[in-house]
Amino acid sequence: MRFIPHAVHGILDYLVGLLLLVSPWLFGYAHDQPVPTDMAMIFGGGLMLYTALTNFEVGIVRLLPFPVHMVLDVLLGAALVASPILFSTGGTAAVVFVLFGIFELLMTALTRGAASPGHPQFPSWT
After folding, report:
1. Angle in degrees, 0-180, between the axes of helices 91-109 and 34-52, rounded to the nearest 10
2. Using CA atoms, how far apart are residues 79 and 68, in angstroms rounded to an integer?
């Protein structure tokens, strides 16, 4: 059952991206785990960037179709969940990344699909 509207999905993506950006300081692994700190900045910044570039209610530039955004969400969520194995992340950072990844995958699975026929699309800057 998919019940999360696109706008809510986008707002949650911005919040998750922001939380990933500040997670090294929020959860206290910034000083003792420099590589996961950089990864959090890349994952969080990337999430906020492609959300801003998505063609939906909360997109700013609206270049990416929403289905592409959803694929990127799945890839991001999978990378976060697999980060302890793929990137040898450990400790607090591993727990934070896995939890954010699970949340991102669940949110993607529960978000409504593409707009139905006859639903107006948002204007694009292209």
Report:
1. 20
2. 16
What's the number of domains the chain is made of?
1
Number of alpha carbons in the 13 Å side-chain half-sphere of residue 117? 0
**Residue 115 counted as domain residue:** no
> pLDDT digit string (tens) for 53-101?
999 999 999 999 999 999 999 999 999 999 999 999 999 999 999 999 9
Burial 58-76 (b: 16+ CB within 10 A, else e): bbeebebebeebbebbeeb
In a domain, 122, yes or no: no
pTM of the model: 0.88
Tell me if 62 sits within 8 A of 125, measured CB to CB: yes
Residue 70 lies in a domain: yes
Query: Which structural domain, as residue segments, surrounds residue 30?
Result: 6-109
How many angstroms separate the CA atoms of 126 and 110, rounded?
29
Q: Which residues contact 120 (CB under 8 A, 6 or more apart)?
A: none
Measured between alpha carbons, how far is 70 from 109 in angstroms, rounded to an integer?
9
Domain presence at residue 56: yes
